[in-house]
Design goal:
globular, 20 strands
């Protein structure tokens, strides 16, 4: 009898572990058909960048094992396939490109694994990460998302507070299958495009309620730069019809350690004020850059604030940007449709090597999106987004950003299993 009980005692805990681990497992498949078309309207080494591809991202997120500390494992498989890309028009960061022949790869992909542990409302992840903070976040504006390798801790154990701490040492860019060192952007010659062995980041967000929060984040890229950001968001309901929204961020950036990217001295003020009435929203944004250099950020991505330039970053030395935006949800006219348009202009730009002083740039951007309504059974989860931009500047022809007309079309579909 004892011989029979002993195996059961050994098997039972593992069955409980497996049950809890598998029972809460979620899986989804995200597909994206992506077309990118940028036509330069001024002098350039190439006349256009045009790439078209199909991407797949399959994600499995396990549950946690039982016990005070739960353990789990997530996996992500990504693959992209070329549909069209001429050798003389590659470089849109949609597909990997051979630097010598300029030929785009027919396919590329990767598999990511993330181990995780959870205690109460604190979660630790190790492996493939997609951070989302004001100082580092995973860019998803091409075919496949940008991913990092490292460790990240998130905690909600303090009421109304999210605490984030992280360490990263490698990045896999949107158009790559290989991990590489994290690099500072070199756009418009703002900095030497140097690499770091690792970076730390962390911060907190405190929610007064669901519509109002404050936060503070910091990042240190070894031997490149140190950055802090103070942020606040509010959504104030004026009356039954009108709401006033604010999104405020104050960044401070300085060089770090060996200063291998050169001097870093920048204070950036990003302010977005919006009035919302029903289906309409009107916004005014101000982006002011102070200090001796432009704003530093990670190569291969963008910065997480209100101004998402398609053909430029609006982050040059001394640049002062004013942006106007209008959003409308067309659900009462065409269910599932939304539209936005934005005009942004930057002045007083200092680029001695790329045109001189008091330079300027501007961009018109238009965004039309359609999401299949939930009550449509078979196509629920389908989104089609079309973006078009007209960009101009008076920089030298050797600058990173050149006048162009740009079209992007993304067709996304997601299955949840």
């Amino acid at each position: 009898m004892k011989k029979k009980i002993l195996p059961l005692m050994l098997v039972a805990p593992s069955c409980v572990f497996a049950y809890d681990f598998i029972d809460d497992t979620k899986a989804n498949l995200w597909t994206r058909n992506y077309y990118y078309d940028r036509n330069y309207t001024a002098e350039s080494n190439v006349s256009a960048l045009k790439e078209w591809a199909q991407g797949f991202v399959f994600t499995i997120e396990s549950g946690y094992s039982s016990g005070k500390i739960g353990f789990g494992l997530d996996m992500q498989a990504m693959a992209g396939f070329k549909l069209h890309a001429d050798n003389d028009q590659t470089g849109a960061q949609v597909l990997p490109v051979n630097k010598e022949t300029r030929k785009a790869a027919d396919s590329y992909g990767e598999i990511g694994v993330t181990a995780k542990a959870k205690y109460s409302e604190t979660e630790l992840k190790l492996g493939t990460l997609m951070p989302f903070t004001p100082v580092v976040f995973s860019s998803r504006t091409r075919l496949l998302p940008q991913v990092f390798r490292g460790v990240e801790l998130k905690s909600k154990d303090i009421d109304n507070t999210l605490i984030t701490l992280g360490w990263l040492n490698k990045v896999n860019h949107r158009d790559s299958s290989n991990y590489e060192n994290i690099k500072i952007t070199g756009a418009n010659g703002k900095f030497i495009p140097a690499m770091t062995n690792h970076m730390f980041y962390g911060g907190f967000e405190y929610n007064f309620d669901k519509n109002n929060l404050v936060g503070l984040y910091t990042a240190n890229l070894q031997d490149l730069y140190q950055q802090e950001v103070l942020m606040a968001k509010t959504d104030y309901k004026i009356n039954d019809q009108w709401s006033f929204l604010t999104d405020l961020k104050l960044y401070r950036s300085d060089e770090d350690g060996k200063k291998i990217a050169g001097k870093v001295d920048n204070t950036l003020v990003a302010t977005d004020l919006s009035l919302k009435r029903g289906i309409h929203k009107f916004s005014i944004g101000v982006l002011n850059s102070y200090g001796e250099t432009g704003f530093p950020y990670l190569s291969g991505g963008e910065v997480l604030f209100f101004l998402d330039g398609m053909s430029t970053d609006f982050l040059n030395p001394k640049e002062k940007v004013l942006s106007f935006r209008y959003d409308v949800d067309l659900k009462k006219i065409l269910e599932g449709f939304s539209f936005s348009t934005r005009y942004s202009r930057g002045n007083d730009i200092e680029l001695p090597k790329f045109g001189g002083s008091h330079l300027k740039e501007d961009e018109w951007a238009f965004d039309l999106r359609y999401t299949v309504p939930q009550h449509v059974q078979y196509l629920n989860g389908l989104t089609v987004r079309t973006r078009y931009a007209i960009y101009d500047n008076d920089f030298a022809s050797t600058a990173s950003f050149k006048p162009d007309n740009e079209l992007r079309i993304a067709i996304d579909y997601r299955w949840n299993f």
